[in-house]
Amino acid sequence: MKEIEYFYSCHSVFAYLGAWRLAEIAAEHDAQVIHKPMDLNPVIAAAGSAPFSARSKTHSSYYFGREITRWAEYRDLPWIMRRPKHHDNPLALGNGAIIAAQTMGLDVHALSRALLQAHWRDDADHADAATIAALADALGMDGAALVDAAQSDAIQAQHAANTKVAIARHVLGSPTYFVEGDMFYGQDRLDMVARALVKPFAKLSA
Fold first, then answer.
1. Of 9, 12, 112, 174, which one is the catalytic site residue?
2. Which residue range or ranges hold the DSBA-like thioredoxin domain (predicted)?
3. Mean pLDDT in the chain?
4. pTM to 2 decimals?
């Protein structure tokens, strides 16, 4: 089975906007999505990009305003039309819940989409254990058990490992997808991801 490695953060708006299309592509091409939630800030710093707080108003207004609005309309996904008030809260719990769901053999795809949508549609706080548990419960999971697992040393070690791997593989931000080692940054590259599953792109010559 072909694989799509999926590096992202549970609070990433562009991961949210691409999540359902990613699922469609995986189903269409019988590909397995491997979720690799990561700590986004050190990944961005390692890539040499300015932190979001340091970016110009012109950049922020377009990239985190107009682009989100258009893509939300294009993908027919609701969003709160502003930056979520909990957006800067720690992500270890939310990311850990996704890693735990995948490790436990639960429906990680559904949980991931639920977390992303809850943040960008409902202003959910991914640092709040009760919020994460409720989202998991709504999917028929044991929310309390999932939260406990998400906070465990083993799951948090995997979160840290995902972040280190993302830095080592020069991930630029969230979401980033890999197909057979070829990197695709941004949900606007999903059609290229689909093409790569059928016919890999030519490699750059050394």
1. 12
2. 4-197
3. 94
4. 0.94
